[in-house]
């Protein structure tokens, strides 16, 4: 089975092309001003236009309001919204209904109890992103290159499609897949040469390691 890979936080056409050519199933654009990966709506619109057919374009937002989401979906061609803040299940359902796009809800995991947070979203989200909880004091709610204990989710089944994220690298992805049973993965930090700067060689190496 092919593992689907999402490369998040892309900011230039060359890295989008590298990801697509290497087999990425999804590319992500970050809309979070504090992030080194942040893009404007007009930048994202230009980048989205370069994404080859068949690669899904995902917009990552954090507790975005309707006005921002309306501008986003009007200006940027997208296949999915990723909600990476503290959006409630009700808000996820509302965004999904109002903006007409599949929604992936990110849930941060650090300990077994965090897994209970997933169930309420299963009925309202199209996908769940099972991600590492940000380290204490982190500026970003995701994209920190932090892992969580994969054994917490070993053998877990969810009815909703899900992706594994959090500190995945070309060297640990095979073990992560084996221990969690994930069939989709999402990453950002490990394919960067500096914060916010993606590296096409690292992207290609990760894609090869995810599907050897
Ligand atoms: O990447 C960001 O800057 C970011 C900002 C705000 C919310 C989420 C953000 N990133 C999420 C991701 O890139 C991934 O979905 C995930 O957290 C894995 O990231 P990484 O551990 O860096 O591979």
Q: What is the H/E string?
A: EHEHEHEHEHEEHEEEH
Low-confidence segments, given as residue ranges, are none
CA(first)-CA(last) distance: 11 Å
Radius of gyration: 16 Å
> Mean of residue pLDDT?
97
CATH architecture annotation name: Alpha-Beta Barrel
**Number of E-type strands:** 10
The largest beta-sheet arranges its strands as 1-2-3-4-5-6-7-8
- Each distinct ligand: the ligand O=C(O)c1ccccc1NCC(=O)[C@H](O)[C@H](O)COP(=O)(O)O
User: Could you say which overall geometry the principal axes of the C-alpha atoms support?
Assistant: globular
Tell me the CATH superfamily.
Aldolase class I
| CATH topology value | TIM Barrel
Number of helical stretches of at least 4 residues: 7
Give the strand content.
Answer: 15-25%
Helix content: 25-40%
Class inferred from helices and paired strands: alpha/beta
Q: Biggest sheet, in brief?
A: 8 strands, parallel, barrel
Number of individual domains: 1
CATH class designation? Alpha Beta
GO molecular function, one term: phosphoribosylanthranilate isomerase activity
Family: Belongs to the TrpF family.
Keywords: Amino-acid biosynthesis, Aromatic amino acid biosynthesis, Isomerase, Tryptophan biosynthesis
EC number: 5.3.1.24
């Amino acid at each position: 089975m092919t593992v689907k890979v999402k490369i998040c936080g892309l900011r230039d056409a060359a890295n989008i092309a590298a990801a697509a050519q290497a087999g990425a199933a999804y590319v992500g654009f970050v809309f979070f001003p504090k992030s080194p990966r942040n893009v404007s709506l007009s930048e994202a619109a230009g980048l989205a236009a370069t994404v080859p057919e068949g690669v899904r374009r995902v917009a990552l937002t954090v507790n975005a309001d309707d006005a921002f989401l309306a501008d986003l979906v009007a200006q940027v061609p997208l296949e999915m919204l990723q909600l990476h803040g503290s959006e409630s299940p009700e808000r996820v359902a509302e965004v999904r209904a109002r903006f007409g796009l599949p929604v992936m809800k990110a849930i941060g995991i650090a300990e077994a109890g965090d897994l209970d947070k997933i169930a309420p979203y299963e009925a309202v989200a199209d996908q769940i992103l099972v991600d590492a909880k940000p380290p204490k004091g982190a500026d970003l709610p995701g994209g920190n290159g932090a892992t969580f204990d994969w054994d917490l989710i070993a053998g877990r089944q969810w009815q909703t499609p899900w992706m594994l994220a959090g500190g995945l690298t070309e060297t640990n992805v095979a073990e992560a897949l084996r221990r969690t049973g994930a069939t989709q993965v999402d990453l950002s930090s490990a394919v960067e040469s500096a914060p916010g700067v993606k590296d096409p060689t690292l992207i290609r190496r990760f894609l090869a390691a995810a599907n050897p």
